[in-house]
Amino acid sequence: MTEVYAPTTVSNPKSSWFLVPSKLLDKVQFGLKAAEVGLSLVAFILEELVSSCGNCNPLYFFEFVSCTAFLFTLLLLILLSTRLHEKVGIECWPKLNFLYTVGIAVLLLISSIVLAADNAGSSLERVAVVFGVLATLAFALDVAYFLKTRGSPFKAGPGPGVSNGGPVPAAAPETERLNDQA
């Protein structure tokens, strides 16, 4: 006896929702972004567990930066590792990723230094600073890896080549006319 209906759907591996590795995010960068999310979340949670502070402004600044790092890095990770980035309408993902990562690394470093310099001395504050610094290192490694593998996202393209150690001479302009009727 033969089957009347043959299967009509064939699995398509390209229709997967998870796109790692892709042109926007390879496996190493995905791992770095996941580490950034985890470390900044732990730093934020530890800061939230602090029950009292002498001067609370450094703690509030660290709270803001670590929470921002966690939430926006998670959003960026979700966007870059799925097809959602295609629906947003942003074309310059490498520049956005690079600038965001550099900015958060700088802010995390500053907020960790400020909290380390001015806190009540509780063990939770010290451990939060450690995780802030670890998150900063993860962001810095991400920036270094980006630059190593892709170069600067602000380069327009390859510049003029070199020949024998000197610049390549410019090509002579064309002297022939397109519609020359000789």
UniProtKB/TrEMBL annotation:
Primary residence: membrane
Compartmental location: Membrane
Entry's transmembrane regions: 59-84, 96-115, 127-147
Residues annotated as domain MARVEL: 24-151
Membrane topology, as annotated: Multi-pass membrane protein
Segments of this protein annotated with the region Disordered: 156-182
InterPro entries: Marvel, MARVEL-CKLF_proteins
Coiled coil, from the record: none
Keywords in alphabetical order: Membrane, Transmembrane, Transmembrane helix
GO cellular component labels: membrane
Cross-referenced PANTHER family: CKLF-LIKE MARVEL TRANSMEMBRANE DOMAIN-CONTAINING PROTEIN 6, MARVEL-CONTAINING POTENTIAL LIPID RAFT-ASSOCIATED PROTEIN
Protein name in the entry: MARVEL domain-containing protein
Species: Oryzias latipes (Japanese rice fish)
